[in-house]
Amino acid sequence: MGYPDGNETGTYLSLDMGGTNLRVCEIVLLEEKGEFDIIQSKYRMPEELKTGESEELWEYIADCIQQFIEYHHEVENLEQLDKIPLGFTFSFPATQTYIDNGILQRWTKGFDISGVEGKDVAPLFEAAIAKRKLPIRLSALINDTTGTLIASAYTDDTMKIGCIFGTGCNAAYMENCGSIPKIADYNLPPEMPIAINCEYGAFDNEHVVLPRTSYDVIVDEDSPRPGQQAFEKMIAGLYLGELFRLVLVDLHDNKSCNVFQGQDISKLRKAYTLDSSFLSLIEEDPFENLSDTSNLFKNELGIITNKPELELCRRLAELIGTRAARLSACGVAAICKKKDIKSCHVGADGSVFNKYPHFKARGAVALREILDWKQGEKDLVSILAAEDGSGVGAALIAALTIKRVKEGNLAGIRNTEGII
Length: 420
Ligand code: BGC
Description:
The chain contains 13 helices and twelve strands. The protein has helices at residues 47-50, 54-72, 121-131, 144-155, 214-221, 232-235, 237-253, 276-284, 291-301, 307-339, 351-355, 359-371, 389-406, and strands at residues 10-17, 21-29, 36-44, 84-90, 94-95, 103-104, 136-142, 159-165, 169-176, 193-197, 344-349, 381-385. It is globular. Strands 3-2-1-4-7 form a five-stranded mixed β-sheet, sandwiched between helices. Strands 10-9-8-11-12 form a five-stranded mixed β-sheet. Strands 5-6 form a two-stranded antiparallel ribbon. The site of beta-D-glucopyranose has 17 residues, from helix 4 and strand 9.
């Protein structure tokens, strides 16, 4: 609830469980308005954990936090430390009745850990922390989009939307409490801003709006959660390489297309063998004869390509990348239309936004078309690189929560122990 005003202070931990990595940060919000210090460590999220058992996940997370604290705090006995408030960025759809809880609705982004869907992840996390006697208090559980929005708004008050274009896709914006029927029982001030996590990766799960290709259908059917995250499966980083791969395998198997004929494409047949960086490299190939692309196919897949095949691959990558960027812009435009935002900044994070060539420019062109800006008029809504949402954003939200408890505003807070 609400925005930070730049006067938040204190030391916080943040834990980011997004997709590829697990990140632990310690953030010190300094006395100087809007300033902070940050130290962080990244831990690879082992692939087998993503489809393993619930307990293994929480044990692994607690181990990483323990390592982090032991490394950065030279104390013999962790119990001597005061409890540090932690903001947990849990980037999956969660039903929240409190800021410090979240019932996982369903896994996304290829995660499929048994025993967590339908459960509140806060006690599962807290149990693993308590077992190790770690000096931590879970103060806020947030989505990466919300963290991105709050962290970006901290330094730029024209930021109205926070987006992630990475392994998954999604956005958050601020709504007035009075416009949200499902929280009417909380009797909050109607004008009070509260973050809405749109979860628009699940847009069009009914498949009634967006045309899908046969490759979109395969990506969906072969995923751990068919029928879910329809929009995300067309635009997010996890799926771009897979779409590209499926098209090429299909063209090869359809003999009349004459693509990679006589070549051993066994490597290309392996699902998810290509990630979006493969497409990035193709789109970035600066050479007229696409020699970088040719080397990529030879080195990564053992396939020797000819000129028409290389041109086909380049065009295919452009089409997949352009569709992703233009549909991503639709999500931003939809929020602008709903909230009647005529001009603002949008904070965006994620590997696709930060690394995929032309993604930003293609998205900006699409926004201009959808929002009907006059020719020659500058971009009224600009999507910019965000501040670190899952680190600083999570710390700020933890700080805002503690501030509310101290002010006696306990709405939507589960655990106030040790704060007052
Ligand atoms: C999740 C969202 C998250 C997005 C970006 C999606 O798969 O459902 O909660 O914000 O990925 O990480």
